[in-house]
Amino acid sequence: MEELEVCPFCGKEVKLDEDGFYMFCCDNCGAGVSFAKVLADGTATDMDKKESIDAWNRREN
Ligand SMILES: [Zn+2]
Q: How far apart (Å, rounded) are the C-alpha atoms in residues 33 and 22?
């Protein structure tokens, strides 16, 4: 399991929900965060698992 940064809202551990797309879920405060990216043609799509984890750990959104 990859190392995930803690919840930015409450500081507790989060889990990565992989049900169709990748969402970081916090059982403590109920936060749910997913990440999207914009493709070259201007459409948005969900990030894959590695991209999502990188984005979460970088806290760019
Ligand atoms: Zn939380």
A: 9
Q: Report the separation in Å between the CA atom of 10 and the middle of ligand 1, taken as the mean of its atom positions.
A: 4
Output the CA 54–ligand 1 centroid distance in Å: 18
Alpha carbon of 38 to ligand 1 centroid (Å): 27
pTM of the model: 0.83
Residue 31, Cβ neighbours under 10 Å: how many? 16
How is the chain split into domains, by residue range? 15-58
* Band (59; pLDDT cuts 50, 70, 90): confident
Least confident of 2-6, 19-23, 24-28, 57-61: 57-61
